[in-house]
Specification:
- InterPro entries: DNA_helicase_pif1-like_DEAD, P-loop_NTPase, Pif1-like_2B_dom, PIF1/LRR1_PH, PIF1_helicase, PIF1_RRM3_pfh1.
- Keywords: ATP-binding, DNA damage, DNA recombination, DNA repair, DNA-binding, Helicase, Hydrolase, Isomerase, Mitochondrion, Nucleotide-binding, Nucleus.
- Monomer. Interacts with telomerase.
- It is a single chain.
- It is built from 23 helices and 30 strands.
- By secondary structure, the chain is α/β, with parallel strands linked by helices.
- The chain has three domains: about 120 residues, Roll (PH-domain like), CATH 2.30.29; about 170 residues, P-loop containing nucleotide triphosphate hydrolases (Rossmann fold, 3-Layer(aba) Sandwich), CATH 3.40.50.300; about 220 residues, no CATH class.
- Strands 1, 2, 3, 4, 5, 6, 7 and 8 form an eight-stranded antiparallel sheet that branches. Strands 11-10-12-13-9-14 form a six-stranded parallel sheet. Strands 23-22-21-20-26 form a five-stranded antiparallel sheet, with no helix packed on it.
- A hairpin with an 8-residue loop joins strand 5 and strand 6.
- Helix 13 packs across helix 15.
- The chain starts with a strand and ends in an 8-residue tail after the last strand.
- The structure holds adenosine-5'-triphosphate and magnesium ion.
- The site of magnesium ion has 3 residues, from helix 10.
């Protein structure tokens, strides 16, 4: 169902022969279906409440610049029609457009039935939903694109730079296209997340892809799926979300909670989905905004009535009313008081007696990581201790497969630390890391500090000590009015000062396969000779390459977005443990002498991908602490789960905090 239909808003523009708009109508909540007619030719059908319209598709133009925002325009020149799709779940829209494009390419390869043959056929009109994409379709379409590229390049003068783009448009000689077409390949359907339906099909697909790689030198993942696949437990969470349940999903650090949230965001309609997190850094990981900024209740410190008054301002209230799905990452840092106020505000502003005013909540985090910030002397109350939590959250699910680390020994150490346990072997293993030499070819380990003042001091001093000239890179912000908001939300500064030798960290996933991922560590080794003079970074993963500006887009409510374009780097001699929450780091040095918070040591240690990439200084067993209230909460959940399901896993609630399981890479079975 996912590949061929879209439920969204459709604007239909009818054009004159000169291209002027004659008529325009917008239809919210209609279904756009991709199908085939009786001649197996492509059709787009729009299902309105009482009728449908069909358009045969032979030539199309697709504008997909805003697919990530759930918007695209399909131009059908033969019909003089523009279909403007909006409020589509972004991932689903991307897959729909891909299906449309690929199926059309395949059809063009095969050839259309002539008008005369159609008239003479006497067939009755039919409409069948289109079949899912298969590897064969993808290859056929890919072959057609290559042939087009080859035709273009045979007429265009040779440009050396065309080699640089060959990774996205391989030439036939590079891909061995001919051999490729003859090779038998599986033709199993591919789903939204690129999974084929059967295990055997998976195996065949992998084998086919491996063959393609070896012959073509082209990454098959580029041809087939760019996205990493979800684990089965991640899939179960996404299915529960799609069923409309208000859910809290938890799991230890690195089990892919934020990763999954991004997929959930991609599966929900953007106009009604608000992605937030308790901190700016965490919000940035999921491309959202802070919970405070969404809620529009200032710091949340006022009384409930004051909060309601603040949230009643037109722009904020409109946001609350538009929200059907509220996502909150790093929920552990939201305290009970704030959660209760938000629940109250939601009911009043939305004029609904339902919990949270009927909004579906998608909460995610690990309460054994950083807790809510409290003032001295204030009693801490976690949001799971609130009445509002019990009223709202109807499903709790647990992710158990650790994806950040793949060494079972290190995962085991981290699991103990998470629960506040530090037996002697664990302490010894961590103490032994103080001798680790983790600085690699000029890339020094990032220091994780307990206090922010130390971070600023270290980065400033270290940069100053480099004797060469500095270079300043200024960001391009969509609107100067939002610069301070962007400074808060965006991981990269408005002005990035670099010097050769500066320790930096990548703040965006650029190329997962090559290790250019958010948190990847590197050092500045020079600048491009071109006009732009972008910094050339040598990364720990072995890649050395210039880093160009990237865009960060933040939804600030009401469908509005603010954008910053900047080099995706920040100084990385040091960062604070609070800022590091949610990150994955290559090489880390942690000073735990001044730990002041429960879960702080766990957050710091669990950023490292491996023990080998970790150096712990001033380690004392006393710095490992877990909050007893949280431990109680998790044990109660486990007990409840055992009692309800007698150890049998249920679709609605999974709770298996013990023991941790490991990703396939670790080689340990669950
Ligand atoms: N299904 C998956 N396949 C491959 N990699 C994955 C998958 N899920 C998560 N990852 C990777 O695992 C790492 C950790 O994921 P993520 O940051 O989402 O974990 P988390 O549970 O949010 O951790 P934390 O509690 O520290 O915030 C990331 O590098 C992410 O890309
Ligand atoms: Mg996370």
């Amino acid at each position: 169902m996912e590949h061929h239909s879209l439920c969204c808003t459709v604007g239909i523009e009818e054009l004159s022969s000169t291209g002027n708009v004659l008529k325009k109508a917008t239809h919210p909540k209609v279904t756009v279906v991709l199908g085939r007619d009786e001649f197996k030719e492509l059709q787009i059908q729009i299902d309105f409440p009482k009728k449908h319209s069909r358009y045969s598709v032979k030539e199309i133009l697709i504008h997909k610049k805003f697919v990530k925002d759930g918007k695209a325009t399909i131009k059908l020149p033969a019909h003089k029609i523009h279909l403007m799709l909006s409020n589509c779940p972004p991932d689903r829209l991307a897959f729909f457009l891909r299906t449309l494009q690929v199926k059309l390419d395949c059809l063009k390869q095969k050839g259309f039935v002539s008008q005369r043959a159609k008239l003479l056929s006497g067939k009755t009109q039919e409409f069948d939903e289109i079949s899912p994409l298969t590897l064969k379709d993808l290859q056929t379409a890919h072959g057609r694109q290559e042939a087009q590229a080859a035709r273009k390049s045979s007429t265009a003068p040779f440009k050396p730079s065309s080699l640089a783009t060959s990774s996205s448009q391989p030439t036939p000689s590079m891909t061995g296209l001919k051999e490729n077409r003859k090779r038998p390949i599986c033709s199993q359907p591919v789903t939204t997340h690129g999974q084929v339906n059967e295990n055997e099909a998976k195996r065949q697909k992998r084998a086919a892809m491996m063959k393609m790689t070896s012959v073509n030198g082209v990454s098959p993942s580029r041809i087939v799926v760019k996205q990493l696949q979800l684990t089965s437990e991640q899939n179960r969470v996404i299915e529960t979300v799609k069923r409309g349940r208000s859910i809290f999903f938890t799991g230890s650090a690195g089990t892919g909670k934020s990763f999954l949230l991004k997929r959930i965001i991609g599966a929900l309609p953007p106009n009604h989905t608000f992605a937030t997190a308790s901190t700016g850094a965490a919000a940035c990981h999921i491309g959202g905004t802070t919970l405070h900024s969404f809620a529009g209740i200032g710091s949340g410190g006022g009384s409930v009535n004051q909060c309601i008054e603040l949230a009643s301002r037109a722009r904020v209230a409109q946001q609350w009313r538009a929200c059907h799905h509220l996502i909150i990452d790093e929920i552990s840092m939201v305290d009970a008081d704030l959660f209760e106020k938000l629940e109250n505000v939601a009911r009043v502003i939305r004029k609904s007696d339902q919990p949270f005013g009927g909004i579906q909540l998608i909460l995610c985090g690990d309460f054994l990581q950083l807790p809510p910030v409290t003032k001295p002397g204030e009693k801490r109350r976690f949001c799971f201790q609130s009445e509002a939590w019990h009223k709202t959250v109807d499903t709790t699910m647990h992710l158990t497969e650790v994806k950040r680390q793949d060494d079972p020994h290190f995962i085991d150490i981290l699991q103990k630390i998470r629960k506040g346990l530090c037996p002697e072997p664990v302490a010894n293993a961590l103490l032994a890391t103080s001798k680790h030499c983790i600085d690699k070819e000029g890339v020094l380990a990032t220091k994780l500090c307990t206090h922010k003042a130390d971070v600023d001091e270290i980065n400033k001093t270290e940069l100053k000590q480099l004797e060469c000239e500095s270079k300043l890179f200024a960001s391009m912000d969509s609107d100067q009015v939002y610069t301070s908001q962007l400074n808060f939300l965006c991981p990269v500064p408005a002005y990035l000062e670099l010097k050769v030798g500066a320790q930096v960290m990548l703040c965006k996933n650029l190329d997962i396969q090559r290790g250019l991922v958010n948190g990847a560590r590197g050092v500045v080794v020079g600048y491009e000779k071109s006009n732009n003079g972008y910094p050339i970074i040598k990364f720990v993963c072995g890649v050395t390459e210039p880093i160009k500006p990237e865009r960060w887009i933040f939804r600030v409510g009401g469908g509005n977005t603010i954008v910053r374009k900047q080099i995706p780097l920040k100084l990385a001699w040091a960062i604070s443990i609070h800022k590091s929450q949610g990150m994955t780091l290559d090489c880390v040095e942690i000073s735990l002498g001044r730990v002041f918070e429960v879960g702080q040591a766990y957050v710091a240690l669990s950023r490292a991908k491996s023990l080998a990439g970790l150096r712990v200084l001033d380690f004392e067993r006393s710095c490992v602490r877990a909050d007893p209230t949280v431990l109680g909460f998790y044990s109660r959940l486990e007990l409840k789960h055992r009692m309800m399901h007698n150890g049998v896993e249920d679709d609605n609630e999974i709770f298996r905090p013990n023991p941790p399981t490991f990703s396939a890479k670790s080689g340990i079975k669950r």
